[in-house]
Every structure is written in structure tokens, then in C-alpha cells.
Amino acid sequence: MNDRQDSNTHAEKRKHPRVETFNEVDYILLDENKRKVGEGKGRTVNLSQSGALLETDSPLDGTFIVLITLDLEGNKVHVKGRVAHSRESENPGCYLSGVRFAGSRQENIQAIVAFVKTYYRKKYAGRNGDSEQ
């Protein structure tokens, strides 16, 4: 009974529902003084209105992060965030990192829309012989 209560309490802590995604991203890591301390590539695992879970090949050792992806028109979309946590994944050599979006509401929405549209376009491209919508 306690495990169930703990599980329910954890689920209730989430402000927004998460959507499974698989988007390639570039990222730039910044320290608390907003100086660049690293960069790399990763992919989104899931996404919500307030953040994303990233999979990378190294832990995200920074305070702030800028995620960069492409929208359907090929334009770069940037979203700012704070690294909430970074831990080793069950997959060897992979790390999962939580990112809390910190940009303006408009920037966050633009990025979320780009992530979701790109993910679904790639996921369903070519089905029923129709790759364009």
C-alpha cells in the first residue's frame, strides 16, 4: 500500500502530461554565469509543457542548457532550460537528463510545437503512400 501511495504522490507532482518523442537535438551547456561549458547531441525521450527528458552519451554537467532542433521548414528552433537532473540510464553508455524549460512562454510553445510536429511527421511519413500532409 505504501508503494502505491508513493507512486501516486510522484505522479501527482507532474504539472503537465508527458508525450513520448524521439527528436534529435543539439545542445549547448552553460554554467551558472552563462559561460559555455560543453555541447553535444542527444535525443528527446519525452516532452511536456514545462520540460523534456533527454538521452545523451554523457551526463549534462551544466546549470543551463540551450536545446536546438529544426522545425518542419528547416528553421532552427532554440529553447532555454535548466538542467534538473542527470543520471545514468539502464542502457549502457547513455544518460537521462531532465530539463526544465526556462524561456518565455512563447519560446517554449514554439519549441514544443516544433518537437511534436517533427516527431509525428517522421513517425508517420510514408504510411498509406502519403508522406506529405
Summarize this structure as a short list of keywords or feature phrases.
globular, disordered N terminus, 133 residues, six-stranded antiparallel beta barrel, alpha+beta, Thrombin, subunit H
Q: What value does the average pLDDT take?
A: 84
Largest sheet: 6 strands, antiparallel, barrel
- Beta-sheet strand percentage? 35-45%
Shape: globular
State the helix count. 2
What is the spatial order of strands in the main beta sheet?
2-3-4-7-6-5
Binned, the helix content reads 10-25%
* DSSP, total strands: 7
Rg over C-alpha atoms, rounded to the nearest angstrom: 16 Å
Distance between the termini: 48 Å
Give your account of this protein's structure.
By secondary structure, this protein is an alpha+beta fold. The protein has one domain (14-122): Thrombin, subunit H. 24% of the residues lie in helices and 41% in strands. It has helices at residues 2-13, 105-124, and strands at 19-20, 24-30, 36-47, 51-56, 64-70, 76-88, 95-101. A hairpin with a 6-residue loop joins β6 and β7. 20% of the residues are buried. Mean pLDDT is 84; it is low at 1-12.
